């Protein structure tokens, strides 16, 4: 192998390594976001739909309250006080 060919091969390898490192950095730096779209009542993780809830349901109130109060601790007592969860819930099964 002559010297110019060797230099071209080394240069090509360096460019390939730098390109792979850049792509790795881009993929690792991609943010993974958990978002709640209130208009569609849907939770998304990095753009992928995770769950949809009905408006007015307990799940909707819980998810909305959590996303409205991001960045602070929320106790169960606070959730009950804000009527996110009902303190009493009675279920009955009809045999008719």
Molecular structure report:
- With 96 residues, this protein is of the alpha+beta class.
- It contains three helices and three strands; from the N terminus they run αβββαα.
- The chain has helices spanning 3-29, 58-68, 76-81; strands at residues 34-37, 42-45, 48-52.
- It has a three-stranded antiparallel beta sheet, with helices on one face.
- Strand 2 (42-45) and strand 3 form a beta hairpin.
- It is rod-shaped and about 80 Å long.
Identify the notable features of this structure and list them briefly:
alpha+beta; single chain; 96 residues; rod-shaped; 3 strands
Mind summarizing the main beta sheet? Answer: 3 strands, antiparallel
Shape: rod-shaped
Task: State the end-to-end CA separation.
Answer: 90 Å
The number of helical runs is 3
Blueprint of the fold:
Layout: H1 3-29, E1 34-37, E2 42-45, E3 48-52, H2 58-68, H3 76-81
Please outline what is shown here.
Helix content is 46%, strand content 14%.
């Amino acid at each position: 192998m002559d010297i110019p060919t060797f230099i071209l091969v080394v240069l090509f390898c360096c460019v390939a390594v730098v390109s792979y490192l850049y792509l790795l950095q881009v993929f690792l730096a991609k943010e993974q976001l958990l978002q709640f779209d209130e208009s569609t009542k849907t939770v998304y993780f990095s753009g992928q739909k995770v769950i949809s809830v009905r408006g007015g349901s307990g799940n909707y109130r819980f998810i909305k309250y959590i996303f409205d109060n991001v960045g602070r601790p929320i106790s169960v007592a606070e959730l009950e006080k804000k009527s996110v969860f009902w303190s009493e819930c009675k279920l009955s099964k009809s045999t008719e």
